[in-house]
Amino acid sequence: MDNLTSKRFALTWILNLFGTAVGAGVLFLPINAGMGGFFPLIIMTLLVGPMTYLAHRGLARFVLSSYQTGSDITQVVKEHFGDGAGKLITLLYFFAIFPILLIYGVGITNTVSSFIENQLHFTPPPRIVLSFILIAIMISVMLLNERTMLKITTLLVYPLVAILFGLSLYLIPHWNGAILNQMPNSDNFALTLWLTIPVLVFSFNHSPAISSFALSQQRFYQEANKVDVESSRVLRSTAMILVLFVMFFVFSCVLTLTPDELQEAKVQNISILSYLANKFDNPIISYFGPFVAFLAIGSSFFGHYLGAREGLVGLINQMRTDPIEPAKCKKITAVVFFIILWIVATLNPSILGFIESLGGPIIAMILFIMPMYAIHKIPALQQFRGKWSNVFVVIMGCIAISATVYGLF
């Protein structure tokens, strides 16, 4: 295997993990993360890179710790924690990811319908027809082989990165620095930091694709040490470009708007690009809004689909004596997911956001706490014990979980 092939393979996965993390929520992130002020945002930016990298590296190492080559996360939890705990964790894993998939089904239908109506000035097709077409296209991509699917998702990420970076640069002449005058006292500072950490954790979360990513690395490199080194390198690069592009976009938006304007955008419940388009009376920015949302939902959908499919197949196989063959599983899950996503996207229920919030603490448990517990307990992971980074991941995981639970109630 030559160096160029290895680099291409790494870049493909960096972009796919970036795409999985950056959902349409990136358009609301500057409002949610920036409302606490500029200085808590700096601390968060310094924390979120190491948090993202170390937590996802821990989860990838956990997936690769199986004695059976090619075991996905659902098989690894059963192997290490036993049958009962394995079933419970697999069930929680599935129910933490699947609602996000439903939200993307609804989101892509709303985005395209709104774009046809408001930007193109046509009457959109009936919701039942539009959702059928869009979800059929996205699920068809998932039925292709891994290489083709990764290529298509990579193609979605390039324009997404370019637009985020371009918009961040475009806003620089409009920076006013009003946010710098907002100095919270120490109590408010700590509270703001505590409550905003989960917002960033879930904005940078690419855990649904980690199991597929780890197995893909294993198939490509084969040698255990090489797999760990190369997968760690990809995860480190992913965390770096997430911090660079996403946080630059967040800072650029926050420095352009005043604290009152951020509050107003929050009250209006519109994306940052819609608010900026209204503020500058610039129709071009409002055109970019739906386009970014479409690219972000599309690229993020694929990573979450992989995680949800893995969870469902794991659940089915754990209840059977002999596992279903992978090709058959692929088709069954595609049909089941298509029907459910199509019904939900047509009905457009308002409860989905709440269900997604309930999944937040579960994702944080699986991403931050479970791999660190496994490192402490499982012989196959003992070489990773005693590292300061493990303590950091557990502390940040506890902060994220406690703040998410507090935010729910």
Automatic annotation (TrEMBL):
One of its GO terms (biological process) is amino acid transmembrane transport. It comes from Otariodibacter oris. This is Serine transporter. It is a multi-pass membrane protein. The keyword Transmembrane helix applies. Keywords: Cell inner membrane, Cell membrane, Membrane, Transmembrane, Transmembrane helix, Transport. The chain crosses the membrane at residues 12-31, 37-55, 88-108, 128-145, 152-172, 192-216, 237-257, 284-308, 329-352, 358-376, 388-408. It is found in: Cell inner membrane. Its main location: membrane. GO terms for cellular component: plasma membrane.
